[in-house]
Amino acid sequence: MRPILIGILAAFFFAFTFILNRAMDQGGGSWIWSASLRYFFMLPFLFSIVIGRKNLQPLLVDLKQRPGAWLLWSTVGFGLFYAPLCFSAAYAPGWLIAATWQVTIISGSLLAPLFSETVMTETGPKQIKGKIPFKGLTMSLLILIGIILMQLQQAAALSPVAIMLGILPVVAASFAYPLGNRKMMEVCSGRLDVFQRVLGMTLASLPFWLILSIYGYVTVGLPSMGQTIQSSIVAISAGVIATILFFQATDLVRGNMQKLAAVEATQSMEVLFALLGELWLLDSAFPTPLSWLGVILVMDGMILHSYISNKKEARVSSKVSA
User: 260 with 185: CB under 8 angstroms?
Assistant: First the structure.
């Protein structure tokens, strides 16, 4: 249950991303700076945490030994995840992006066959090819149905262009984030803690953000002071706090694809937090009864997802003890 609670807390801080990215777009800021500034601002905070824990040297050694893997999967997990999210903010409201982002619940489950899973046998732990957790996926579908109901009436008012440019990049990001995160867990293989891994991925993704920043400077100029401040808030809340919490939750269930899918399902709570945040900060419309029905389905799906995950783990533990 602890990884689930940590995942929900991470979802709360992740929700700042959708609210503030939309606010920056409405204020005339470019999605390019919304994306790249977040990771630039993350660096000093992450450096101070890792240095304070006296763990910087092992990270630098690992980066030097595996530069290709770090560069590739950090660019996928951070660059190809966050840049599309910021791009979509120019074409769709934050609540729709947050709702669409929940496709990552299914995306993460569908990626299971690409990874190995640790199972206990009579002779000890054994690595087998991961399988799609269909029971957990059923609960994920229930969560998605709830999310669709929450946003159905608002989405009907959007133009086809807004739907395409506001949704498709988010769908692509929903695969990039769990793919990069899981691949980096394999690369690190328990050698580095979550703080080292987040700092390492931020450092390794810097070439992507530098190239994007140069493009932004040439095309739209420098960011405004307001966008710079809002980007720093996103960096602290979503980039540092939420990312570390989420990675810590996934680390706790590393090697168990069903429990990993359950942790990733907690990110559906971002929709609720983003909706409340937009009501408070951006004067969004109050949810309809149909939307509240969606809220109930999301909560039920979360509870059932966690129950099935823990029930399976209990069965495995009892077999091992026997």
Answer: no
